[in-house]
Amino acid sequence: MKKFLKNFLIIALCFGLGYGITYLSSSFMKANKNEKGYIGPSELQIDNGVMTPEVLLALGRISDPQISPDGSKVLYTVSYTSIEKNRSCRNIFISDLDGTNKVQLSRYAHSVSCVRWAPDGKSVYFIQDGQIWKAAVGRKSLGARRQISKVDSGISEFKLSADGSKVLYISSIAGPVKTAKDIDPALDKAQAYVTEDLMYRHWDHWVTETPRTYLAPIDKIDSENSIDLLGEEPYELPTEPFSGIEQLDWSADGRLIAYSCRKKTGKQYAFSTNCGIYIYDVESGKTFELKTDGGYDTDPVWSEDGRHLAWISMARDGYEADRQRILCCEYLGMEEGEPKFSEIVELSADFDNDANSLVWHNDEIYFSSMRPSATQAVLKAELNGRITQLSEEDWPYDFFSPWAIKDREDGGVDIYTSYYCLNFPTELVKISVSAEGQKTFCQISHENEHLLSQLDEPSSESIHLQTVDGKQMQCWVLYPPKFDPSKQYPAIEIVLGGPQGTNSQDWSYRWCYRLMAQQGYVVIMPNRRGTTAFGQEWKEQISGDYPGLNMQDYLTAGRYIKSQPYVSKLACVGASYGGYSAYMLEGLHGDLYDCFIAHAGIFNEKQLWYSTEEMWFANWDNGGLTEYAYEPGQTGPKGDGITFGGMQQAGAPYSDNARAQRHYAHSPESMVKNWHTPILCIHGMMDFRIPYEQGMAAFNAAQMMGVPSKLLIFPEENHWILQPQNSLLWHREFYDWLEKWCK
Predict the structure, then answer these.
(1) Are 560 and 681 members of one domain?
(2) Is 687 known to be catalytic?
(3) CA–CA separation, 46 vs 38, rounded Å?
(4) Per-residue pLDDT, 111
(5) CA angle, residues 516, 522, 528, in degrees to nearest 5
(6) pLDDT tens, 469-481?
(7) Nearest-CA neighbor of 390 among 421, 369, 410, 362?
(8) Which stretch of DSSP H or E encloses residue 79?
């Protein structure tokens, strides 16, 4: 009997140790070896110097740089793609601040995100598989990772307080849209969505969940120990679909949290852009309003000493492309349990471009902005409203807002940021500005040098063309490698999405202009009316005038490039508003273009009004041009021609507004009898911004007009084509169509 008990205990101990080792290996996995399923950098060899879609997908993608607490190192992530596995994987790297001594710290099979230093600089926190993990930073790898959160609905992002004792994290609760299981749990195989109000879809998903932000101590992050900042309020925090943890910020002492929130639901949410700035007091659990009028107020950031709060603000409710101003106020302290602030002032009153991504350094705010050079620059705003550009106007790159700023011994500053251009994707870079104002820059990272060095490089230039109304329009022109003006090349005109955006030195993995040039095309990228780099008047003109001047701008650019002796045939290609533009120009161009490609484009504006999800955009841009207004409890027309169901709908097809009536009367489908040029229509079935029926309708119209046409539908993609194999197929169909009709 004793022998039996002894053997039983040995077996039990071995089993227990085995179970424990298995558990520890999953929860405390070291990162110095490749996990099974790990995806690493490409070793692709390119013999002929030509970039292909396979080369594009092989490039590593740098993101989210974070300076160490002692200011000596930078932590960042790089994502690599496997076409065979049809996925990407993001891992962690570290280097000295000058880019030397680069080390890959993790080799996980599952992506990490939101990697943040612990205040002591000895360990990092990150998101993996929907939870927060912590790992020590070693010389050659991360130490054993340890899961420190247990939140049933998962975590997408987080932000630590300055002392590292508390954390804000984003999770979710049940949303307003109900499923069959919500109605009857026994119907577990039924699939249905039920709603009784608007805004039931966002971008590519039904609103069955609502994002929320929670406060928890760093040493106990679970659902029971977390505080929902909104309490019982039914709103999103952060705002869907693209906002994240940048919409919340800790004060320096960890007492206050500033956040942006659109405190509306249903139809009001669908028509309004009013996101206010609120202050949450960690000690009392109370929330205080700071600014709740106007349009978008977003991206609040506290100054390093906690004395000031700044944010991005748009003045008009309902207009999502209003000028992005810098607003600021001084924090005066707590008075009878309530935070007090000075009067809110605008620091960018004399600045006619959009400010993005504010970063404090001392008493100055650094930010990025598209500029009249059609490049994105780094600038700074002083508290007196003076704005200075810190990157040179003639540097042909797009620079982003800094991830670190360090004072120099000579009185200047070193600005650490990211940049890209038409010829390479995102890399880390340092801009140095001396006390005398001399500016230089040097690249820190070289993630894709081993691939790009094997390619022949295109060249580009900036030109200006006179528009039909006598204005000057900037265009970028990208030429194939080894361009010879005595030869002839097919050309591509890019018709831009947005419509409020800019053809800058932008690098894209979906619309890669370098790839087009390396396939032998001259590429022209006109900055027509509605683009954002040339002041608010130029940007704002397009609203209510979709069929008008911006279409003439495109025709001006197309006629210019096709008149060049080195151009043979010309294609017109674009996505989203660019897809709309392709459909419009198909009916307008005469014989200028030799083929069209329209991705996720608007074909029937009236149909889109009744099926898109963000009503504020269509209500303004379709000719409404009127701020949000709502009278609850109303049904049917008010009698003023623009108010229905209590909601101002001046941009609706049933309004009496002349601008809106013109807009719908000149929708692309109204000109299908003019269609005669080959067209490729592409759409994703999960696109809820411009539903895929728009692409099908355009293709059907082309077929019924006898126009050579092709339809490409992706059942599992949204407005963008993101899965690697789908992306590869997209590129192959794209270039096959161009080759068929332009070469």
Answers:
(1) yes
(2) yes
(3) 24
(4) 98
(5) 95
(6) 999 999 999 999 9
(7) 369
(8) strand 73-82
Query: Do both 701 and 656 map to the same domain?
Result: no
Domain membership of residue 95 (yes or no) is no
Q: What is the DSSP string of 111-172?
A: -EEEEEE-TTSSEEEEEETTEEEEEEB-SSSB---EE-EE-TT--SEEEE-TTSSEEEEEEE
Q: Is residue 70 part of a domain?
A: no
CB-based contacts of 692, cutoff 8 Å, min separation 6: 683, 684, 685, 713
- Together in a domain, 632 and 659: yes
Looking at the structure, do residues 536 and 653 belong to the same domain, yes or no?
no
512 and 582 share one domain: yes
In this structure, what DSSP letter does residue 620 have? I
Q: Pick the catalytic residue from 42, 272, 313, 576.
A: 576
Active site residue 719: yes
The residue segments making up the domain with residue 642 are 609-666
Q: What is the pLDDT of residue 149?
A: 98
- The catalytic position among 308, 599, 719, 731 is 719
Per residue, the 3-state secondary structure of 645-676, as one string, reads CCEECCCCCCCCCHHHHHHHHCCHHHHHHHCC
Could you count the other beta carbons within 10 Å of the beta carbon of residue 557?
A: 24
445 part of the active site: no
State pLDDT tens for residues 137-158. 999 999 999 999 999 999 999 9
The answer on 557 and 626 residing in a single domain is: no
Does the pLDDT at position 524 exceed 80? yes
Count of domains observed in the chain: 2
Question: What predicted TM-score, i.e. pTM, was given to this entire model?
Answer: 0.94
The two tokens of residue 16 are 């227990």
Choose, from 297, 354, 506, 687, the residue flagged as catalytic.
Answer: 687
Q: Which residue has the tokens 């008493």?
A: 363
Task: Judge whether 324 lies within some domain.
Answer: no
Cis peptide preceding 708, ω within 30 of 0: no
Does one domain contain both 513 and 618? no
